[in-house]
Amino acid sequence: MARARGGDSVSRKKGAGAKGRAGRARQVYVYTEGEVTEPQYIDIIVRNGTWADPGRTVQHHIANPNAEGKHRKPLRMVQDAVRTLRKVEREAKDAGLRQGKDWNWPQVWVLFDRDDHQGIPEALRLAENEGVRIAYSHPCFELWRLLHYTNYTATFGGICNDANSRLRSRPGFAATYGRGVRTVTAQQSKHMREEQVLTPATDDALSRYRTARKHAQKINDGHSTAHPHSWDPYTDVWRFVEDGLLLSGY
Q1: CB under 8 Å, gap of 24 or more: what pairs does 197-203 form?
Q2: What are the E-state strand segments in the chain?
C-alpha cells in the first residue's frame, strides 16, 4: 500500500552515494485548481493505492493549499510551478541526484480544468517548455470522477455544471454522504469519499481505476485536432496517477 504524503526536503541528505540515491523517495509537488476535491482525491489514492514498483515510492506535497483564487488560475499556477521546479531541482542536485538518470528526480505537477479559463494554450506551452507536468481535464476534474462510474463520450459544451450534475446522479453516489441523503448538492460533491473511486472489496473483477483509465484513453484517442485546449471531453489524470505518483492502481 502507498504511504501518506510528507517527508523532508531532498536537500537534507547531501552527498548520498548510488545506493542512497536509489532508496530515496521521489518528491512530487502538486498545484491543484480545486481547494478540496483534488487534494482529497490524491490523499485517498495515495493511502489506498498500489506501487507499480515496491522499491520506488513517492512523497507528495500539495504546493498551494492556501492559495487565493488568482493563484489557482491555470497560467498563474504554471508560473508558480516553474519557480518551485527550479528550487527543488537545485535541492536535488545538492543531494546528489542526477536529472535524466535517477528515477526519483523531483517532479512538479499542475492539475487544472478547461472551464472558462483564459490562457489555457499559454499555460500548456509554458509547462512544456519549462518541464512542468500537466494533468488536464475538459471541462473539469468531475469528468475523471464520472469515468469511474461510466463511459461518457458526448461533449459537455465546456460546462462543468453538466459534468457535475451527471456525476451526482450516479446510482449510489448520494449514499456515500451518509444515511438519509437523497440529493447531493454541488457543494457536498466537492468532498471526495473513498467509495467513489476505490474498487469495492466485494467485487474482485472490477477495478474502478482501470475502468476510468480505459474510458479516458478511448475518449482522448478520438480527438484529431492538435489543440488540446479545445478537446471536449478530455482528461489525462491517469498520467499523474501512474507517471507522477508511481501507482499501478487503487
Answers
A1: 197/41, 197/44, 197/45, 197/145, 197/148, 197/250, 198/44, 198/48, 198/250, 199/250
A2: 26-32, 50-51, 58-62, 107-113, 133-138, 234-235, 247-249
Enter the pTM of the model: 0.88
Secondary structure, 3-state, 29-47:
EEEECCCCHHHHHHHHHHH
Residue found by looking up cell 466537492 in the block: 190
If phi > 0 it is left, if psi is from -120 to 50 it is alpha, else beta; for residue 178 that is left
Instruction: Classify residue 69 by its DSSP letter.
Output: G
- Name which of 70, 33, 25 is nearest 41 in CA terms: 33
Q: Residue 167's closest CA among 187, 182, 147? A: 147
Q: Which residues of the chain have a pLDDT value below 70?
A: 1-20, 180-182, 202-205, 226-229
Q: Of the candidates 135, 133, 138, which has an alpha carbon nearest to the alpha carbon of residue 114?
A: 138
Which residue in 154, 183, 187, 161 sits closest to 170, CA to CA? Answer: 183
Cα(222)–Cα(225) distance, rounded to whole angstroms? 10
